[in-house]
Structures are given as structure tokens and as C-alpha cells.
Amino acid sequence: MPKEVNPRAASSAYQADLTLKSEYVLEYAEKELGLRRRPGQREMIKTVSAVIEGEEKFGIIEAGTGTGKTYAYLIPVCHHCLTEGKRAVVSTGTKALQQQLIDKDLPFVTRLFAAVTGHQLRFTLLYGRANYLCPRLLNEELDKQEATLQLVKDHETEFYLDLAEWLGEGGSGVWEDLPSISDKKRRYWLKICADSEDALCAGCEEPECPWLKARRRAASAQIVVVNHWLAAADLALFSEADLRLFGEVKPAVLVVDEAHHFREVVKMMGQMVFSQSYLGLILQGLEQVEKRMPVPTKHITGETRQAWDLASQAVYALEDWAETFLGSNAIKPLKPGLVPSSIVNRLQARLQTFLQMVQERVEGFRQELDSLDSGQADFEESGINEEKLKILNRLDRLAEKIENIASAFERGVRTSNHYLVSGSSGDVCCVERSQGIRFVSWPFDPVPALQALYELYDKVVLTSATLFPSASPAGVEWFLKRNGIPGLKAKIARVSSPFDYERQMKAFILTDGALMPDPTNPCRLEALGQAVLKAVEATEGGVLVLCTSYTELRAVAAHLAQHLPKTRCLFVQGEAGKSELLQQFRDHGQAVLVGVASFWQGVDVPGDALRTLIIARIPFPVPDDPDVQAECYFARHRWWQEVFVPQASLAMKQGIGRLIRTESDTGMVIIADPRAARRHLQLVEACLPVTPSAVALFDDD
Fold first, then answer.
1. Which of 220, 308, 402, 609 has the maximal Cβ count within 10 Å?
2. Residue 223: phi, psi to the nearest 5?
3. How far apart are CA 234 and CA 108, in angstroms?
4. How far apart, in whole angstroms, are the C-alpha atoms of residue 225 and residue 98?
């Protein structure tokens, strides 16, 4: 049992010698509150403290699973916030970790500091605007329904009524906190959230506005927890308007947990999309503004509609070409000169004509709104002023859409800034089939954006269980270079996991030739399904199968669906959301879960619910992936060492890390790829914490 807390004695010792700092707080927690002693956690605390209090700007810490890394960075960060009056931002890659920080880790650490110092730290969680309800818009929607006598309940009205009841009972107005969430309801939510085109957040003074309250909490909190997207969005807001999402007082420290995600998020913030649906949104936006004008106005001219029709026809011609270009692929890299110039030139001319007409109409609407006499006595009472602000807000959004689609066409269809043209400062471009045809472009190199983001803070700490593809200096340098971190300004540490892997884990590589991942091996998918089934039948507890493609996933799932024992239950990615599938998998305890892509990371299933992990093959990057092609182009003859091996190593480490989550977990890893026992054995052994055994699964048949 933990001893009684003596805040006065603790505070006295702490104040008497501030050089004790974070180490004293951790020692107090271990002695007085029963926190388990972890040498790796102490090592990480010292590293983070040394960065925050020293000359280096960056702390780069790879901390193995079980280190207790959240406490290891929260304790020195909280100490800094208390003793120096500073603020900090903690950015995470998953909502699960955000909730852990807010519901468990930060409450414990702040109580700890309250006991030791007598001072209470303030912390909060901040989402993006689309996650917060706008009460004003909700009330307007309910008023509309009541005015048209529609309160007899279609699904949309029921959703709004349920929201109003929830708010009345003290609901937070945050999407994530809704008692029941359905993706089908999301389209209703987007009409009445703080990111709606009708939300007047800029001048909002509604005391019960959830977004406004969240921003106020973030502005006054010493520690703000966000996701990586919001941390990157803060940079965009600062670049465009010299403002910060976290209030006027600059946060001094940025902690990036799950930092292996961060680079990709910052890169995707620069993504641009050209599609028929986006073009349609522009005409739709223009029509909606016309309908809402509070005074008689000119109608959208026939010439504008005709220009839209002509532009759409040109986009359809582009899509027809793209369908042929894609064939059976869902995505393909796009390089300069691939799209026929006749299609590009015709579309460019028609798109320019249409956008120019829309721009002229937008300016016309602005002039008509400016002509309204705001001095009329009944102006405020009639609600015209608020409606005018909403229309102006929509016109601003429409102007942004015009600019975005013009730029998306230039960069994504004409590929004018392609990396083959502009070098490493250029774009990666692709065509993809995703709810229609989309032409997508994004910056190849996110380092300039990352460095601009780092400049917003005095100190930056990046941590994860997997940061470096290898423990060698080359592996560390690979990470630093890709993330724009100068090695001379960084304190780098690797903290080993406290788990006894030799006792807790066994690893096997299947050497059967039928499992060889080779296009000339037609038997592989059938053999993979059989291998998974044999492993399931020979083991107890839950089984997670990590595939590297949907083809593998479908083949394994189909085989298991026919032959799985009745005592087991099969869950397949895509049948439900990731969180729902994982919860069902945990609850069953004897289930088999087959996943791809996102299931290689962010899966935390301790205990018997996950006892066997099967890796379908070494997760080398897909050669025709647009990003991979671009990275190989710049790596030249070193494409294998600088692209394929590091990315496969990180993915493999992430996948293997799903198995052992606590000190009491035990289980086995099975790699169904004979290459792992041959020419790629060194790569695989570097990823595994135990030495694998090579076995031939089908020899006894």
C-alpha cells in the first residue's frame, strides 16, 4: 500500500533544493505513492530535463515499449512549466493516447506536483474546429424544422433534437464525447459544427460555445494536448495570420509523442486535390450564396452555368483518360507529360473561364452586400446583419476554393512543380481512384515546414518506441535528416524496454517454398491462408494477422472464413471501424483479427486476447508508391539502403511491437516469409528482440 502523502514535507524538500528537480519528483512518486521503479524511465527523465534546461534545442528519444515514457516527459515538462512559468504543447498521433494523457497520465502527474509543490498545473485537450458544436447553428436548424412543421422526425431532426437534449443535460458539445457516434450522422454534424461555413467563430461571444470555451481553456492552460494535425495547423495559422491556436502566450516546449507519424502529417498538410466533385462545390457554393442574399440580386448568369458545363466536360475527358491510365490500380504516380496536352490545354482554358466568372460574381455579391445600409433602425432586429456576416463568410470560403482548385490543377494535373522539374523542393503527384478520380499533389520534402514549426518553440522533444531504423549512427542520421533536425543541436538517447523478451516472446520464420512472395509463385496466397489456419489451431488466445496488401488480407480472410474452428471468431479490417474491431477482438479473447496498413501500429491488446502475431511478409515499401518512387529517385544508386531497408525495418518493428505490451504478456511472432531466413535475415534479426527459429510448417504433410 502507498504511504500517506505529506504535501508539506514534500514541498519543503522540493523548494529547499530546486536542483533536485524532476528526479526528486519521480523519487517521491516511487517512495510515497507506490509508482513502480523503472530505470529506463529515470534515464529518459534525465534526458528530457537536460534538453529543457540545457543548450540543445532538440531531444530525440527512442523509448522501448514499457518504459513509461509519458511520465518520463510529463514530469520534466511540468517542472519547467511550474518553475519557469512556461507553457507546453504535447502532440500525439492517436486519439487513444490523447485520452490516456487527459484521463490518466496528466491527472496523476499534476496531483503529484500539487503534493510536492503545493501548486496545481492546468492542462486541457484541444481538437480541431470541426469537432465542436455551434449551439447557434443547432438552434437555427431546430427553428427551421419547427417553422416547416418537420419536428415529426426524420433522422436529421432526431439527431438535432438529441443534441439539444444532450447539451441541456450538461453534454460537452464535442463530437468525440457524443453518447453514440455514427459516421452517417457526421454529415448532419458538419452543418452545425464550428467549422461550418455558417459558423461565425471570429466574432462569437456565445458564452456556451464549446469551441470558444475550448480555445479559452487552451489559452490559459500550461499544458495543451493536441494531435499532430492540429500542431501542424498551428504553423499554418501563424504563417497566414501571425496567430496561434494556443493563445497569445507562446508555448515554450513542444513534445511530439508517437513522433514516427509526425513527418508524414506535416507533409500531408500541403496536399492539394483536383477533382470533379471539388469543382462542383464551387458552383454549389455560388448557388447557395445567391439563394441567401438578403436583398434582390442578380441571378447566376447562363454564361456561368454554361462555363461550368464546359469545364465539367473537360474534367470528364480527363477522368476517362485517368481510368485507362489506372487500369486495375487504385493509385499510380503521375509524371510530367503523361496526361495528353490536348486534354490539359482544353481543360485549362475552360477552367480559367469558369473560375474567372465565379470570381467576378463573388465580387458582385460583395458589392451588393456593402451597399446595404447598416444604419437602418431595423437592421439588427431583422437579423440581416448576422445573415450578411454568414454570406461574407461563405464568400471568403468560396474565394479560397477558387484559389485552391486553380493551384491544384496547376500542380496536380499540369504537374508544373513536379520533383522531376523542380528538384527536391517540388511535388509528388499521383492519380487515385477514391470516391471518384482525384489528381493529388503534395510537397516531396516537408523539412522546410518542419523547421518552421520547430522555430515556434524554444525546445522540442520527439519520442516514440520506434524512431530509428537501426541503432547504428547511420540509422540515427537517417531520422535526423528526414525530420530536419541538426545533429549538433540535438541530445539523442535510446532507452531499452524493461521487458524480458527472452522469457516472454518466441519468434519463428516459416521457410516453406510455397510461401515465397514471388509473382511467379501462384500458390503463395493459398499457402499463406493454410499457414495462418495451422497457427491458429496450434495456439491459444487471440491471433493478429498483419498483411501487406488487401490481396493478402482477402485471401487469408476467405480461407479462415471457411475453415476456422467454431471456438474462434474472425474479424477483418473494413468490416467495422478500427476501434470497434479492436474492442471486439479484446472482448472475445480467442478471436482472429486480419488487418493491413494501420493495424501495424496503434494496436494495444495486452493479455491472452493477443498471444500470436503473424506477419504475412517483410513489409518492404511498394515500389510503385508515389512517395517511394520519389525517394528512390533522389537516393539514386543507394535506393535500397536509404529507402527500402529503413522503411521496412521501421514497419517491422512497429508490427512486432503489437505483441508484448506488459511485463506479464507472453506470445509468439510468426513471419510467413522464407526470405526472412535467407537474404534478409540480418534485417529481420535487427527488428526482433529475440533470435528467431526457422521452421518448415508443411514438412509433416
1. 308
2. -130, 125
3. 28
4. 7
**pLDDT (tens digit, 9 = 90+) per residue, 586-637?**
999 999 999 998 899 989 999 999 999 999 999 999 999 999 999 999 999 9
Q: Three cell numbers at 362?
A: 463573388
Query: Among candidates 497, 416, 514, which has minimal Cα distance to 43?
Result: 497
Distance CA 632, CA 628 (A): 6
Entry field: residues in the chain: 701
Q: What is the largest CA-CA distance in the chain?
A: 93
Q: Give one DSSP letter per residue of 44-90, joined into a string.
A: HHHHHHHHHHSS-SEEEEEE-TTS-HHHHHHHHHHHHHHHH---EEE
Walk across the sheet containing 459-464 and list its strands. Answer: 123-125, 223-227, 88-92, 253-256, 459-464, 58-63, 490-495
Type and span of the H or E element at 112: helix 106-117
Cell of 542: 487471440
- pLDDT tens for 536-584 read 999 999 999 999 999 999 999 999 999 999 899 999 999 988 888 999 9
For 44, the grid coordinates are 529518459
Edge-to-edge, what's the strand order for the sheet holding 427-433?
272-274, 437-443, 427-433, 331-333
Place of cell 496536380: 412
More confident residue, 160 or 377: 160
Segment 457-482 shows an average pLDDT of: 95
As given in the structure block, the three cell numbers for residue 42 are: 529515470
Roughly what angle, to the nearest 10 degrees, separates helices 69-84 and 106-117? 40
Q: Is 57:454 a contact under the CB 8 Å cutoff?
A: yes
Q: Give how far the C-alpha of residue 685 lies from the chain's centroid of Cα atoms, to the nearest Å.
A: 30
At 442, which helix (H) or strand (E)? strand 437-443
Q: Which of 538, 561, 685, 552 is nearest to 611 (CA)?
A: 538
> How many CA atoms are closer than 13 Å to the CA of 198, on its beta-carbon side?
20
| Residue 165: count of CB within 10 angstroms of its CB | 10
**Separation in Å, CA 349 to CA 60, 311, 336, 407:** 50, 8, 19, 14
Could you tell me which residues are beta bridge partners of residue 598? Answer: none
Cell for 356? 474567372
Query: Measured between alpha carbons, how far is 468 from 426 in angstroms, rounded to an integer?
Result: 26
The string of pLDDT tens digits covering residues 346-395 is 999 999 999 999 999 899 888 888 876 554 444 444 456 778 888 888 89
pLDDT at residue 701 is higher than 60: no
Helix (H, G, I), strand (E, B) or coil at 667: strand
Record the cell numbers describing residue 396, joined without a space.
Answer: 471568403
| 128 has pLDDT over 80 | yes
Which string of DSSP letters, residue by residue, matches 374-440?
TT-TTTTTTTHHHHHHHHHHHHHHHHHHHHHHHHHIIIIIS-TTBHHHHGGGSEEEEEEESSSEEEE
